Amino acid sequence: MNRVPERLLRVCLPACVLGVTILVIFTAGCMNTAATGGDSISGSVEGDYAGGTIYVAAIDAAAYTASDIRVMETREHPERSQYVSGFAALDTPGEYVIPGLAPGNYTVYAWADTDDDGRIDHLDYRDPTGWYCTPSHLTPVRVAVAPGNAATGIDVTLAAPTPYPDGDTNVSVGSGGGRLTVRKGCHVLQVWGAPEERAYAYGYLCGPQIRDWIDYVLIESFMQSPADYEDLFIPYIREHMAPANPAYMAELDAMLAGMTAGGTDLRLSSLSRNLTRYDLLAENAYDFMLYYKLYGLMMGDLGINRTATGDAGVSPHLCTSAIAWGNLTQNDELAGGVIHGKNMDGENDLRKVTVNSLLVIAVDPGPGAKRTVGIDWPGFIGTFNGMNEDGLVLVPHSSPSIPDWNATDLMPCTFLYMDTLRSESEVAGAWAYWERANGTRTGGNNAGVSAPYRNGTGSVPAAFETDSYGGAVRGPGVVEPDDPCCLFIANNFYLYEGVYPPAVERVDGYHAEVRPTDYRYRNLLAVLDGYREEEKTIGTPEMIALMQSASVSEEYRGTTEYTFIAYPDVGAFAVAKEDLAKGILDAPFAEFAHFDFDEVFERA
After folding, report:
1. I need a labelling partner for 591 at 20 to 30 A (CA). Which of 1, 10, 143, 214 fits?
2. Is the pLDDT of residue 12 over 70?
3. Parallel, antiparallel, or unpaired for β 186-192 and 176-183?
4. Measured between alpha carbons, how far is residue 371 from residues 255, 387, 571 in Å?
5. Are 485 and 328 within 8 A, CB to CB?
6. How far apart are CA 374 and CA 365, in angstroms?
7. Which sign does the torsion angle of CA 570, 572, 573, 574 carry?
8. Mean pLDDT within 505-532
9. What is the dihedral of CA 489, 494, 495, 499, to 10 degrees?
10. Which residues is 393 bridged to in the sheet?
């Protein structure tokens, strides 16, 4: 038996007072022992390492999921968690053995506790993480342990993506430029000037974070199969999407040039090649990529059948909005104005890139177009959760509908949202823009749309229920709640049955009423009923409570990476994200940072 490292004793001894407890800890792997027979997992750990104890944990894959790993990580000494069947501890990268495992399937998950504080510190990627996977499936792959047969060669690579730099960074490009700064705990990117000047500055300031988002979120976490991404999806969007968006492709080229000029290493570890304009396009169309994977590959709609080999699947059908106005917000805070809350759910990668890299992006395009703020990730030149200077707000909710695979003029939703925000001021104007916009929409999408209500325009919030073939505008009262001043939006259609019905019917995209299994929607209704009983109006605390109810439904919990609240009438917004320091997994339970719209454009 190997000697227990001295610092490991400091970690383990407080829990190892009784002899029987010591035996349990040893069996669980507190000591890195050599295998004496079967029922063990062994391999090596390599990759990013800056000191501290390396833990390699075997998690019962039959009993626990990726969501449970997220819970495990929030607790002290996660290696001793109920989710862990055994673990090994190493002083340095190298060989490990986890003995004494019962027969079954396991997820092998590892981290380096760089400061030996007994926690996994994800903030700014302080503690590198990794797991056993295969070249064909990059998320955790199950390891089978059979009676009397050791599982060997279960190798793990630790990785730590690149955090944003400390302090302010600036760059000038022609008559434009950019600035990356921190406001109220949020990373804020300001870009101004002509489109290609803005994109160049963006790439220059956020190059490593853009690369890592593509490497670790888009390819590793979402597509999962590098071969499917490289050989199928990239050629598809090169033929079906890039030709229809020449102006945006020019911006992506400028972003790539800015990344290069800023000294970013463009190499994608998952593909062993440098990042290209098409990877940037794929990021801006990532929701469509999930449709491509789920319907095109899994369902064989493209004549290609792929079967997932790992444990972690990704569904595009998440996100929730609640919008209130008029009589429901007639209080001292809002005076009848609109409040629009939105949960962004499900884009939670195990490395926490979607949390650490979240950006408030303030875009000043100059004369002829409206300024916009997007709550997005590095690399987005379109927007998903956006607001313009007139108070128009657009936020997404994917909804099941098979895309038009044959279209050669596909328009990413992020581009459509940005184009709308740059030109329109009201809900009706936004819908008119969508009806005349060129390009085919990339599958099912419920846009939550709101605008100032108190200015006399009568711009009532709406859900744009759309797919590749058409759409409909759902206002209040079509389904519950039966209130002219409230609208809830989730991930299916309640009004639109499909201009091409088979696209919706095949995936049960339309619900004639709120079903018992529409859990998040029903949670919102229950909270609203409570407000009615108490004769309570809705302000910020009530909206936060609505968002909290949606993020901890029977459907899921622990997956809301950020929450966006917009105040169109006063030109303000708030944002909260998963708290990596306090271990708060669902964003609406974390602290919100509040901003005036103009505040994030100040460059002094």
Report:
1. 214
2. no
3. antiparallel
4. 19, 9, 12
5. yes
6. 13
7. negative
8. 97
9. 110
10. 387, 450
How many residues does the structure list for the chain? 604
Angle between helices 277-284 and 246-261 (to 10 degrees): 120
CB-based burial label for 136 (10 Å; 0-12, 13-18, 19+): middle
Give the integer Cα–Cα distance in Å for 34 and 283: 44
Residue 522 near residue 547, CB atoms below 8 Å: no
∠ Cα 391 394 400 (to 5°): 165
pLDDT value, residue 36: 39
**pLDDT bracket for residue 304 (50, 70, 90):** confident
**What stretch of H or E contains 345?**
strand 339-345
Beta bridge partners of residue 557, listed in sequence order = 552
Cα atoms in the Cβ-side hemisphere of radius 13 Å centred on 382: 26
List, in order, residues 6 or more apart from 33 with CB less than 8 Å away: 1, 2, 26, 97, 99
Tell me the H-state helices in 213-330: 226-228, 234-240, 246-261, 277-284, 286-291
- Cα–Cα distance, 542 to 536 (Å, whole number): 9
CA pair distance 462, 457, nearest whole angstrom: 14
Quick check: 149 and 37 in contact, CB under 8 A?
Answer: no
Mean pLDDT confidence for 156-184:
97
pLDDT, tens only, 435-461: 999 999 999 999 999 999 987 777 999
**Which tokens is 169 given?**
């960074």
What residues does 486 pair with on adjacent strands? 324
Query: How many other C-beta atoms are found inside a 10 Å radius of the C-beta of residue 290?
Result: 20
Cβ–Cβ < 8 Å for 465, 493: yes
Q: Which H helix or E strand runs over 486?
A: strand 486-489
- 């997994």: which residue's tokens? 585
> What single-letter amino acid sits at 361?
I
Helix axes 519-533, 540-551, angle to 10 degrees: 150
Buried b (16+ CB within 10 A) or exposed e, 174-196: eebbbbbbeeeebbbbbbbbbbb
Token pair of 389 as six digits: 């200077």
Question: Of the candidates 575, 195, 126, which has an alpha carbon nearest to the alpha carbon of residue 368?
Answer: 195
DSSP result, 378-447: TT-SS-SEEEETT--EEE--B------TT-S-EE-HHHHHHHHHHH--SHHHHHHHHHH--SEE-S-EEE
b/e per residue 36-68 (b: at least 16 CB within 10 A):
eeebbbbbebebbbeebbbbbbbbbbeebebeb
Residue 490 to residue 398: CA distance in whole angstroms: 8
Q: How confident is the model at residue 67 (pLDDT cuts 50, 70, 90)?
A: confident
pLDDT at 37: 43
Domains in the chain, CATH or no CATH each: 6-158 (2.60.40.1120), 169-297 (1.10.439), 320-356+386-399+407-601 (3.60.60.10)
| Model-wide pTM > 0.90 | yes
3-class SS of residue 88: strand
Q: Which amino acid, residue 137?
A: H
| Residues 139, 312 contacting (CB under 8 angstroms) | yes
**Cβ–Cβ contacts within 10 Å for residue 492, how many?**
25
